[in-house]
Amino acid sequence: MTSPSLLNAIRPEARAARQSGIVELFNYGRGREGLIPLWVGEGDLPTPDFIAEAARRSFAAGETFYTAQRGLPAFREAIAAYMTRCYGGPGGNFSPEQFFVTAGGMHALQIAIRLLAGPGDEVITPAPSWPNFEAALTISGASTVCVPLELGSEAGGALRWRLDPRRVASAITPRTRAIVINSPGNPTGWTAGLPELEALLALAREHGLWIIADEIYGRISFEGARAPSFHDVMAPTDRILFVQTLSKNWAMTGWRVGWLEAPPELGDIIENLIQYSTSGVATPTQRAAAAALEEGEDFLSRQMARLRASRDVLCDALAASGRARFARPPGSFYLFCAFDGVVDSRAAAMRIVEEANLGLAPGSAFGPGGEGFMRICFARDPVSMGEAADRLARWLASS
After folding, report:
1. Rounded to whole angstroms, how far apart are CA atoms 136 and 131?
2. Which residue, 294, 318, 340, sits at the end of a domain?
3. Whole-model pTM?
4. What average pLDDT is seen over the chain?
5. What average pLDDT does range 346-360 have in this prediction?
6. Contact 307, 379 (CB under 8 A)
7. DSSP string, 318-379
8. What is the pLDDT of residues 132-161, one digit of tens each?
9. Residues 126 and 258 in one domain
């Protein structure tokens, strides 16, 4: 047991970082035979072989030495080409000098926060949100200011999550340094439209703020080839840092590789922050990531068809139960759902592990506005998702 005196001897920012409610449930249900795990943000597919083969070739070639801190030039060129294909347009080509290779999206987020926020600073984040945003800010000494997402009806009665830019404006103070926008969002699937992005960008310009744009689910969109992006509305002089990862699109969660997109003028500083945190990403990992970007569109297309089918299986089953309230997500691979009678989501998630052999993430893990909801990751094959939906529907009927 750790003594109180030892805990008091470490920095308060480290002590203030809360345990992840997602990890808590993962640990609670780990190893249960037959459990269907829908609690963490990854699917059931292994990394495709064409990606792994690129890493094997790199190992065979002896590429096991230190690497360039900003990332392999060939991989940064692959990122620029990929971004130009997916997000470019007239005058919208990307340069390798904008991209800095990181050990996953979380590392990119930490570097972005290190650049922008520290003790005494405030950063605005819509909520419910991925808990790692608040945790990264807490560890840096900054404060998180949560602006609630709203779940309301559209024409026709369907529910949809929305962010009111006026509420973001009212949260800005002299201490505000940045706004974090995760769209499509975790855990809600909220996806900002172009008018919302333009309004948020206008606020950042007016108040001299940065935007940290977490668009890692941008290609996981059910309403187009990709979700709207700040790239669609920004000018070259806008202060935006983009967080990206290979984890979600190409089933590479365990590889820990992503990138930070930033103005090239910040390159020397970002290089230092990479050097003093990870000293770079392994060359074989970067070779694999380049293969994903260059050859991975067919895999992503197949995965999107699978995700759509699994999303619809889950949503249709819960709608038929009459016990669930949710917005069918336009993006990401999560359903954020409230169940009749569930007030304590943590306790309910533990009961669902015990009684339905099903792992869900409690909404309380996602900050203000999350309690009473559950996050369900539907990145599984439709047959498995159907079994999970049946288990959940039976649990709702008996609870």
Report:
1. 9
2. 294
3. 0.94
4. 94
5. 95
6. yes
7. HHHHT-EEE---SBSSEEEEEETT---HHHHHHHHHHHH-EE-EEGGGG-TT-TTEEEEE--
8. 999 999 999 999 999 999 999 887 778 999
9. yes
